[in-house]
Design goal:
The chain is an alpha/beta fold. The two termini are 31 Å apart. The chain has helices at residues 35-38, 46-68, 87-104, 113-119, 164-174, 181-189, 215-226, 240-269, 284-296, 306-309, 319-324; strands at 4-9, 14-21, 26-33, 75-83, 108-112, 132-137, 142-149, 152-158, 273-277, 300-303, 342-343. The structure holds 5'-O-[(R)-(carboxyoxy)(hydroxy)phosphoryl]adenosine and zinc ion (ZN). 5'-O-[(R)-(carboxyoxy)(hydroxy)phosphoryl]adenosine is lined by residues 12, 138-140, 165-166, 168-169, 180-183, 186, 278-280, 282-283, 310-311. The site of 5'-O-[(R)-(carboxyoxy)(hydroxy)phosphoryl]adenosine (KG4) has 20 residues, from α5 and α6.
């Protein structure tokens, strides 16, 4: 009998479950995305997300379990992402995990979704990625952490307004691109000149802080597209070259901020590794420019595999680290939607 873990993820708009062995082998995995439900609103609608999770959570878990060819008896525990995330979405995954833990008489382990994004960088590697600076760049987060071990970490800094992925999504809407905007915008950017428009790099030159700010950049893009004062515009009427140049220049401004601040954090905390996860870490330009910068500065870089950058349950393998330490939770485990600043 292989000891394995059932991990459940429902923090935002992906319903996911995975069955993972102690040595990180994925025996079963299922992800139900909700893009088709949110695209007409050009963003995730929390109430719709929660209702969709409710419909999908049990079939998704069932599929992962069947694929794994294991039975509940083989499970060492049930892991579930309890924070941070959308409150309604978190509660669906947590309730399912609690119900199954009770029915199958299994322990439950709550995990931090943001730390799981960082943990994903080390999956499949022989050596540990800790200690490191962990960097999560997604639709909800642009956060830097000093990670001493998988379960012991401190928040360093993050965005003071929009997350990087959120800025990608909102600028994509301004450019008339489909939801989710990040992948569509980066495709359009391939046809543009990243140096053509000098968009601002907010806080990049402020060496006294490691925070990010993207709302001013977003406004600068809006003014470049439509001028000041206009409430609506037809982005598709822009010259194709200008549209691509705006996309490329905006993407470059974001990438400069992400690369600059994360390297600054590595230097400040005196670690040798940088580990990057979250949806925006799937961005090709970001991956390639960060790799070049880390090579130049002799920083060991681990970016999660593209399929592990966006939300998934496989990264819930983080729970094994808590199981090894005997850190189980009880059935009064609660969802904590906000960002935590410290973990142990
Ligand atoms: O980690 P994730 O799946 O969900 C959150 O926890 O937010 O990240 C989703 C975000 C979205 O904002 C999406 O536009 C962005 O990641 N994203 C990208 C790319 N792929 C996904 N942004 C830029 N370039 C990409 N290739
Ligand atoms: Zn995420």
């Amino acid at each position: 009998m292989t000891r394995c873990l059932l991990a459940i993820e429902s923090t935002c708009d992906e319903t996911a479950a995975a069955v993972i062995t102690e040595d990180g082998k994925i025996l079963g995995e299922c992800i139900a995305t909700q893009t088709e439900l949110h695209e007409q609103f050009q963003g995730v609608v929390p109430e719709i997300a929660a209702r969709a999770h409710l419909e999908r959570i049990l079939p998704v878990i069932d599929t992962a379990m069947q694929q794994s060819n294991t039975s509940p008896d083989d499970l060492a525990a049930i892991a579930v992402a309890t924070h941070p995330g959308l409150p309604g979405s978190l509660l669906v995954g947590l309730s399912a995990a609690k119900g199954l833990a009770l029915a199958w008489r299994k322990p439950i382990v709550g995990i931090n979704h943001v730390q799981a994004h960082i943990y994903a960088c080390g999956m499949g590697l022989q050596d540990s990625i800790f200690p490191c600076v962990g960097f999560v760049v997604s639709g909800g987060h642009t956060s830097l952490y000093h990670c001493i071990s998988p379960t012991d970490w401190n928040y360093i800094a993050g965005t003071i307004d929009d997350a990087a992925g959120e800025a990608f999504d909102k600028v994509a809407v301004m450019l008339g691109l489909p939801f989710p905007g990040g992948p569509a915008l980066s495709k359009l950017a391939e046809h543009g000149d990243p140096k053509s428009i000098p968009f601002p790099r907010p806080l990049l030159d402020d060496k006294t802080r490691l925070d990010f700010s993207f709302s001013g950049l977003k406004t600068a893009v809006r003014y470049r597209i439509a001028g000041t004062g206009k409430q609506s515009w037809n982005a598709l009427a822009l010259a194709p070259e200008l549209r691509a140049n705006i996309a490329a220049s905006f993407q470059q401004a974001i990438v400069d901020c992400l690369v600059g601040k994360s390297l600054q954090a590595v230097k400040k905390f005196g670690v040798k590794r940088l580990c990057v996860g979250g949806g925006v870490a799937a961005n090709r330009e970001f991956r390639s420019q960060l790799t070049q910068a880390c090579n130049r500065q002799k920083i060991e870089l681990h970016i999660a595999a593209p399929e592990l950058c966006t939300d998934n349950a496989v990264m819930g393998a983080l729970a094994w680290e808590k199981i090894k330490l005997g850190q189980f939770d009880t059935l009064d485990l609660d969802a904590k939607p906000g960002l935590l600043r410290k973990g142990q």
